Amino acid sequence: MPHLDPTDALDLDDELDEVERLIRDTVSAFVRDRVTDHVAEWFEAGTFPTSELAPELGKLGLLGMHLEGYGCAGASATAYGVACRELEAADSGLRSFVSVQGSLVMFPIHRYGSKEQKQEWLPRLASGEAIGCFGLTEPDQGSDPGGMRTQAKRDGGGTSRSSGAESGGDWILNGTKMWITNGSVADVAVVWARTEEGIRGFLVPKDTPGFTTGEIHRKLSLRASVTAELHLEDVRLPHSAVLPGVTGLRGPLSCLSEARFGILCGVVGAARTCYLSALEYSTTREQFGRQIGGFQLTQEKLARMQVEFVRSQLLALRLSRLKDTGKLRPEQVSLGKLANVRAALDIARSARTVLGANGITTEYPVLRHANNLETVLTYEGTEEIHTLVVGESVTGLAAYR
Fold first, then answer.
1. What pTM value is reported for the model?
2. 129, 197, 380, 384: which is the annotated catalytic residue?
3. DSSP 102
4. How confident is the model over 119-164, as pLDDT tens digits?
5. pLDDT band with cut points at 50, 70 and 90 for residue 336
6. pLDDT (mean) for 338-346
7. Which stretch of DSSP H or E encloses residue 342?
8. For every residue of 299-320, which 3-state class applies, written as one string?
9. Whether pLDDT at 166 is above 90
10. CB within 8 A of 186, min separation 6: which ones?
11. Number of other CB atoms surrounding residue 374 within 10 Å
12. Domain ranges in the chain?
């Protein structure tokens, strides 16, 4: 009986063009050479070698790769999705770093920033010379960013380099942001704050007086990733620090939609790693005188994992093509994140049961991925929020309040 390719049962790689396959192979090789053998140690130690990996990721063109100009690769959405998949096959923390840099920091500067802001930050961020973070979530405001307490008030009497009345004077920011990936290692933070005109985005360099960070420790998930709090106490910024191209929640929400696309593609890689780990183990582990993969209950698990994996592959590819044609809608992204993260988490949990007690160690990747996916299920919109987005989309009735 012919065998299905467990990594591509429906020959979906045939749908990729030459450039997309080259990116797939390049990222896969980088992950294999630089990450796979070390990521379990990073996870256990709760560290991520940002200063080492950022320039390498930049050299490969992976930082802001879906953006045009300013040192960005200008790759297709499908190519970006494939890259995210290969990165997250190693660890969600690695893909998160690339997603935050490209989709949450570079994207808003690229879309809403001034010419000067783009020239100052995008080339450095694309090369990995500079690191960015995205400040939206607050200690008391997660799923409802419209209730943020961080405020920015005008101060026309400022003495910074802004040009006074013509530029609108300085801004004074106060507030706290929580659960910020890259927060304590970032050179610039994209901070969203409430103003009299509505929510605005601000570029806050790390050495700005009054701006401090504190790294969050004792995590049980996404440990190979830097997570921090941002504190802004009377932070004075020139008017030139404001992202001029957007006012209101559509600014940060558009960034989140970009990041969610990377997630729905990336988790396919985590699911693949867990599935392949369980499959290999089932053909080498023997009990009762035979390989455990030959038992019906184990095959049921493997078959169910294969079905969920294929579904997530199909969904990621379809949404990637929609994004490439400019037709992808935010509610479709929500559907994709909801479905694919659920599938990846189910696969990781099931794979752990195939590995038995061995599955709880860092010798195998499955429980590390499962733990990471618990965070992925929550960030960039919780499972509940995406459920309500899909629910509203199909009924026309909002159920958030």
1. 0.94
2. 380
3. I
4. 999 999 999 999 999 999 999 888 888 899 999 999 974 444 444 3
5. very high
6. 98
7. helix 330-355
8. HHHHHHHHHHHHHHHHHHHHHH
9. no
10. 131, 132, 133, 206, 213
11. 16
12. 12-127, 132-248, 251-395
**Phi and psi (nearest 5°) for 163?**
-100, 35
- pLDDT of 260 over the 80 cut: yes
Structure-block tokens of residue 177: 């942001």
Q: Is residue 193 helix, strand or coil?
A: strand
> Could you say which DSSP state residue 241 is in?
G
3-class secondary-structure state, position 150: coil
**What is the C-alpha to C-alpha distance for residues 310 and 304, in angstroms, rounded to an integer?**
10
Q: What count of other Cβ atoms lies within 10 Å of the Cβ of residue 49?
A: 13
pLDDT exceeds 80 at position 346? yes
Length of the chain: 401
Burial (CB count within 10 angstroms: exposed 0-12, middle 13-18, buried 19+), residue 109:
buried
Q: Residue 352: what residue type?
A: R
CATH class assigned to 132-248: mainly beta
Calculate mean pLDDT across residues 244-271.
97
The structure tokens listed for 89 are: 């096959």
Element (H, E) at 84: helix 77-88
168 pLDDT tier (thresholds 50, 70, 90):
low
Q: State how far the Cα of 140 lies from the Cα of 150, in Å rounded to an integer.
A: 11
Query: Please, which residues have CB within 8 angstroms of residue 352's CB and are 6 or more apart in sequence?
Result: 274, 359, 360, 366, 367, 370
Is 258 an annotated catalytic residue? no
- Indicate the pairing of strand 170-181 with strand 151-155: antiparallel
User: What is the per-residue pLDDT across 185-217, written as a single tens digit (0 to 9) for each?
Assistant: 999 999 999 999 999 999 999 999 999 999 999
Closest to 186 measured CA to CA, from 84, 75, 48:
48
DSSP lists the bridge partners of residue 291 as 286
* Domain formed by 251-395, architecture: Up-down Bundle (1.20)
- CATH (residue range 12-127): 1.10.540.10
Q: Cα Rg for the chain, rounded, in angstroms? A: 22
CB 170, CB 154: distance < 8 Å:
yes
- H or E stretch covering 116: helix 115-127
Q: Are 97 and 134 in contact (CB under 8 A)?
A: no
